[in-house]
Design brief:
Blueprint (H helix, E strand, L loop, with lengths): L2 H15 L2 H5 L21 H6 L3 H29 L1 H20 L6 H27 L2 H29 L2
Helix pairs in contact: 6-7
Amino acid sequence: MGGHEMLKALRRTLAVLGLLSSVLSSPVLAQPAAPKPSAGRPAQTARAAAAAPTADQTSKASISDERKARIERYQKWAKDWRARRETHRKARLKRLHYRLNRVLKGAPVSEAVRAELTAHAQRLARLYRIKEIAIEKEDEGALTRVEGLLRRENTRHERWLSQQQEAIRP
């Protein structure tokens, strides 16, 4: 698959997941609009606004600290994951070979199994890439959705393998 096709596939996946608009409209990409003065009262100057923090601002500060801690945790995960990618790949392949030997009981790998493994690997790769992008953009909503989608995809794949195992049993 060429670079252009891969980009189109990633955009299509993001659109299907409803993440494209959230990634493109994330606070990192979009500049916040300047607050507009209300018609009932005069606009507050920057000095006056900075001098009087409200209770709402203090609660936002604590939420902001929590958010920063979560984002830092995700960024650490992304950095560690990239560093251990090859080790994880080898371990994943070892588990896959073990599982296939258990499921297929020595039978040759059919085209259906090959196609499922390929589709599963491609889906996981796309979802992990989306997760990395969401971490970079600090989009917590997208992170939550991607983690849920990763769980759903893994559950679907495990169910498919179990069905194959049941079909092979005598």
